[in-house]
Specification:
The chain has 439 residues and is α/β, with parallel strands linked by helices. The protein has eleven helices and 19 strands. It has a domain of 94 residues: 2-Layer Sandwich (GMP Synthetase, Chain A, domain 3). Helix content is 31%, strand content 24%. Bound molecules: zinc ion. Zinc ion binds next to loops.
């Protein structure tokens, strides 16, 4: 049994903790890496054992779960195997946010002694998650495992571009797992210069940030050494963004899915055929799937005990893959993660259209530099189109063509308002969000 969770709210973790946390990360990383090769049966047994324990713990010691489960008439003993999972009440963002913060953590825990991780709230609902040092190490190991699955080496120098910088570790001063942090608030030109100067082997950032970096490299005519690995997370990596990153940096990005509150737990392998789920650390479900298999993603982090996250409704949408991945890994695999449920348009009959639909349609118009679809009323779509400078004189025919195409495939009761734009400004956190539902 992999060691995780456990009671680590005692003071031992807080004295001389840096070294201890580093060792814990390395130890957990080794076991996480090994379990990537486990059989599905072994993973299932582990998931069930950890879930049984986690449910009993949450019900006994975390007031939020006690009230949530009592309201639904659920008892931890009702869960015997994964087949019973649908009986466990869902935890919604709304419920988590409206709860007293002290009710969300284990009784007796001192929030002042826990790490606080804040989500960006790009869906309009910021959340704070509290972690112990051991849980932080666990989340780091779970995320690092993805790097190692792609051949990451401890001697690799990484460039990571974020709003908030991560911790610096003592071993990094020795040149192990060295990392340069840059701010997303800096101009992309400065990221590109840095990449040229240091020749990073690994680049990690959100999809929109990577795209801006790649564009800066191309626009300035730079030729940085090709990074061996490029990891894209935080935002939906659409095909156009993927292609621009690959063209600018010379490396096809690896898409990684996760949530700030649950770590990264689904990732593309070298075949880029959907997302392998880290089933040793997370239980992922797809609920209420539509005929295309797309449904709401629900995730449980098996390693969080102080602030458990059990059957957490992520607000994202995905679909399972039916067949095995040619890479040989047996981990469950999501064929698609199309992003947040809000990255969709809601049709009058209740169906949802996600960005791939629009991407395919607009791909037929190479004159378009950027586009965005915004739904602010149930029966009206605003379609914003920005053409490249060379094609501006063709704006009329392009707009007419798009309007005609949309009218053919969308229901007539949906009014389509085509707006031509010279540029499409993007708000922070909306960098690659091309479909926005503001209903
Ligand atoms: Zn694979």
């Amino acid at each position: 049994m992999i060691e995780l969770g456990g009671q680590d709210t005692g003071p031992g973790w807080y004295f001389g903790p840096v070294l201890r946390e580093s060792f814990a990360t390395v130890r957990m990383l080794a076991t996480a890496r090994a379990s990537t090769r486990w059989s599905l049966e072994r993973l299932r047994v582990r998931q069930e054992a950890l879930l049984r324990d986690l449910l009993a713990h949450a019900y006994e010691r975390v007031p939020l779960y006690r009230s949530l489960y009592d309201e639904a008439g659920f008892r931890p003993a009702d869960f015997r195997s994964l087949a019973d999972l649908p009986r466990v009440p869902l935890l919604t963002k709304e419920r988590l946010k409206s709860a007293d913060p002290l009710d969300c953590v284990v009784r007796g825990a001192d929030p002042a002694r826990l790490s606080r991780v804040e989500t960006s709230g790009s869906t309009g609902m910021p959340l704070a998650i509290l972690l112990t040092a051991r849980e932080r190490a666990w989340q780091r190991a779970v995320a690092w495992r993805i790097l190692f699955e792609h051949g990451y080496r401890l001697r690799d120098r990484t460039l990571e571009i974020r709003q908030n910088f991560g911790p610096a570790f003592a071993v990094q001063r020795l040149g192990l797992a060295a990392k340069d942090w840059l701010s997303i608030l800096d101009p992309p030109d400065s990221w590109a210069s840095h990449l040229c100067d240091r020749g990073h082997a690994v680049v990690v950032a959100g999809a929109g940030t990577l795209r801006a970096l790649a564009d800066a490299v191309v626009e300035r005519g730079l030729a940085p050494p090709r990074p061996r690995l490029v990891f894209s997370d935080s935002e939906t990596l659409d095909p156009e963004t993927r292609a621009r990153i690959a063209a600018g940096l010379g490396t096809d990005p690896i898409d990684v899915y996760g949530l700030v509150e649950l770590s990264n737990f689904a990732w593309e392998c070298e075949r880029r055929r959907g997302f392998h789920v880290s089933a040793d650390s997370h239980v992922v479900e797809v609920l209420d799937a539509d005929p295309d298999g797309l449904g709401d993603l629900v995730a449980t982090d098996l390693g969080l005990r102080v602030m458990p996250m059990i059957r957490y409704a992520t607000g994202d949408v995905g679909a399972w893959a039916a067949e095995a991945c040619p890479c040989g890994r047996v981990l469950p695999r999501l064929a698609r993660v199309v992003g947040r449920a809000v990255d969709s348009v809601r049709l009058p009959d209740g169906r949802r259209l996600f960005w791939p639909f629009f991407h395919e349609l607009f791909a037929a118009h190479p004159e378009l530099e950027r586009w965005r679809v915004v739904q602010e009323a149930p029966r009206r779509l605003r379609v914003e189109l920005a053409l490249g400078a060379r094609d501006r004189d063709r704006a009329g025919p392009v707009c007419d063509g798009v309007a005609h195409q949309l009218a053919q495939v969308l229901p007539p009761e949906l009014e389509i308002d085509i707006r031509r734009r010279d540029a499409i400004p993007v708000a922070p956190g909306e960098k690659t969000r091309m479909v926005l539902c503001r209903l």
